[in-house]
Amino acid sequence: MKNVLILTHQSDFLWKFELENVRLLQALDFVVHYASNSSEDGHHYDLRELDRLGVIYHEIPIARSPYMLRMNFEALYQLLVLIENEEIDLIHCHTPVGGVLGRLAARLSKRHPIVIYTAHGFHFYKGAPLLNQVLYRAAEHALAPLTDALVVINQEDYAAAKRMRPRKGGKVCFVPGVGLDLVKFRPADPAERAKMREKLGIRPEDFFVLSVGEMNRNKNHVTAMRAILRLRRSALSNGRRIIYGICGDGYFMNEAKQYAAGLGLSEDVRFFGYQRKMRDFYGAADVTVFPSIREGLGMAGLESLAMGVPVVAAENRGTREYMLDGRNGYVCAPRDVDGFASGIRKIMEMTPGERKKMADRCTKSAQRFSKERTRRRMLALYEELTLRREHSGIR
User: Fold this and answer.
1) 119-130 pLDDT, tens digit each
2) pLDDT-based confidence at 41, cuts 50/70/90?
3) Class (C level, CATH) for 2-178+371-392
4) Residues of the chain with CATH 3.40.50.2000
5) Helix (H) or strand (E) holding 119
6) What pLDDT band is residue 395 in, cutting at 50, 70 and 90?
7) Exposure of 227 by Cβ count < 10 A (0-12 exposed, 13-18 middle, 19+ buried)?
8) Which CATH fold topology does 190-369 show?
9) What distances in angstroms separate CA 126 from CA 65, 296, 365, 390, one per listed residue?
């Protein structure tokens, strides 16, 4: 019997990003264990659902912050016990702290399991604060020799990862994200779109702007709100109302609501909270605004594009992977309020024919991020590392 441990600090992570990998590992006859911290903010799933998936859950007190040393040392100790008791052969760790603890635990364990670390966006990206550039870069280089496979999801991180030195025989892999479900996220037909808008209380004449993502400062919702404010008066003079909907929750929720009220946008900005059925929201939207200061890739942008909904995005290493300025939306600097307002206005003023052409380009630009493509690459990686483990035995 082979045992794999998927490790991250946030328990929602498996449902959001790892379901396909769970299926792949189970198809390779692995028993899948999942360790995370369900007390972290933003937990939206009943852990009993893991039983249906055939996944064994372990509560580990991993803290989001690397500076919560006492909590993370306790998590490291519990991981060492888990690895030995459950006879873990492979660890696939995610998120910065999960990546640190998973690799340290594998190194300290007598079993020395194979380690995969997926970096969903290094914290020393171009433009990051100097402290991030120094500390996080140094940490990743120091931990690389404890890593059998370092997986990255964008070209900027791939270039940085290639300068690191994984364990002897290890490798750096580029995988285009966690995989986009092109069956689920496909363009809605007119009747379906009308039904979606009616369900959300969006009138036919309204212009619906959507943002999707955790409510935190990095997602930069305030810039989008300020852009909406600049467009509001001209839209109303033309008999249209702009509605800005935000799907997501987090610590910034109350502050964002207060900010919207301060701008006089309380009735124009709608906070939908965390949503599991995002197709209805993308299908109802006229444009998706994606103003994140940093992104590893940004599945929200890709899901919108796959549904034929153009994106006005902040330029960052994630959106550079798929945004084509003027083709599938518009790109501007993260805090460029005028740039976001201009991009939204251009889409508002498009003729039906122009909109159709852009929608077609949107769906086409998302195709190469399909879950089938990601699945093939991850399956090949899991098979390669499994064979290495079987041939070499416990290292």
Assistant:
1) 999 999 988 999
2) low
3) alpha beta
4) 2-178+371-392, 190-369
5) strand 114-119
6) very low
7) buried
8) Rossmann fold (3.40.50)
9) 21, 12, 24, 40
